[in-house]
Amino acid sequence: MADIEIRAEICTAETEAGHCLVGFAVSEDEEDGYILFQQDGPPGTEPTWLEVSDEIFGAPDAVEVLEIGETLIRVSIRPKLVAKFGMVRDVEVRPAKTAEGWAEAKALLRRMFPDA
Predict the structure, then answer these.
(1) For residues 2-7, average pLDDT
(2) Single pTM value for the model
(3) Which of 19, 21, 22, 27 qualifies as a FRET site for 44, CA 20 to 30 Å off?
(4) Domain boundaries, given as residue ranges, for the chain
(5) What is the pLDDT of residue 41?
(6) How many CB atoms lie within 10 A of CB 115?
(7) In the 8-state DSSP scheme, what is residue 72?
C-alpha cells in the first residue's frame, strides 16, 4: 500500500524549449494533492525534479523506481530522500473517471524515464 494515493482529475504533459513537465493532480487546488516530474532538457537526458503535494516536498533525482501501467503509476522515492518528502516512500497515481490527458502524460513520463 502506498503512503499517498492520487486519483488524478488533471493530467498535464508539456514539452517546451527542451523542458519537460508531467503532473497529476486531484484538482486545481494544490492542497488536494499532486505529483510533479520536471526535467530541464530533452526527455530522459537530465535528472528529474520530483515534487509531491507541496514545493517543500521536492528534490532532484529522487525517483528510485517508477512503474507505469495502464491505469496505475507507482513511484518509489530513494530511501536517503524519504525525510525530505515528509517520510513518504511510495506514491500511487490512478486516473479519475473524468481524467483528461492521462495517456499523453503517461507517454511523456515514459520518454522522461526510458527504463520505466
Answers:
(1) 96
(2) 0.93
(3) 27
(4) 4-112
(5) 81
(6) 7
(7) -
